[in-house]
């Protein structure tokens, strides 16, 4: 039988859950570690604090490719996906496009496609219709961090204009919002974390990152001395469980904040 947490398994006396490696490992409660000095909590955005509203996520590259093909423009789905990835990882951090028009315009330049004005606006509208929703417990997680007296930051590579309108109720509670252009770097390296720590005047060992991506949200922060909590809402495949082994894993955002509570020596709120 897999070792999966029951609804009431993680009580204040057994709150920290390092991942177990092996085909049957997932979460295992252990006694809380000794109190540690934490001054800040960093949150990831996508799939941690927020997600796309049902039926209002960004269009699939296949859809955009078909739309363009119907207008006489050939951009294969992979070419469009790769163009967007370059804008996301390289060009947005470098130039900080303020809206979808310039963001998508750069993607067309990379794909070497020149749509007419009507087609261009049609593609832009496909992306402008994207909407975000806070995920369950997102607002309460930020409130809990503030009640603990912790500084808070949102650290994401996603362009701020893409989510700011829909998530104001969360962003207004966060001390520092960092996107790919804030420090001209994304989450593929440690620079974005080092600069955020510096801005908040916090040492790496005094901050914890919470997110759902093993490399960008956990392994990179821990390499520079931060603590990190990986959110895994479902049991990972066996291969991933090998890579996760030894990391602190939470089943959701509420559980992640329970772990933070235990680390700073305060029991989670009822």
Briefly say what this structure is.
With 270 residues, the protein is α/β, with parallel strands linked by helices. 39% of the residues lie in helices and 11% in strands.
What does this structure look like?
With 270 residues, the protein is an alpha/beta fold. It has 2 domains: 13-52 and 133-263, HAD superfamily/HAD-like (Rossmann fold), CATH 3.40.50; 61-128. The chain contains 10 helices and 8 strands. The strands form 2 sheets. It has a 6-stranded parallel sheet with strand order 5-4-1-6-7-8, with helices on both faces. It has a two-stranded antiparallel sheet with strand order 2-3. Strand 7, helix 9 and strand 8 form a beta-alpha-beta unit. Helix 5 runs parallel beside helix 10.
Task: Provide tags for this entry.
single chain; 270 residues; alpha/beta; Rossmann fold; 2 domains; six-stranded parallel β-sheet; two-stranded antiparallel sheet; 39% helix; elongated; disordered N terminus
Structural class of the helices, strands and pairings? alpha/beta
**CATH homologous superfamily designation of the largest domain:** HAD superfamily/HAD-like
Strand content: 5-15%
Shape: elongated
Largest sheet: 6 strands, parallel
Query: How many helices?
Result: 10
Going by CATH, the architecture of the largest domain would be 3-Layer(aba) Sandwich
CATH fold name of the largest domain: Rossmann fold
Instruction: List unreliable stretches of 5+ residues.
Output: 1-16, 20-26, 28-32
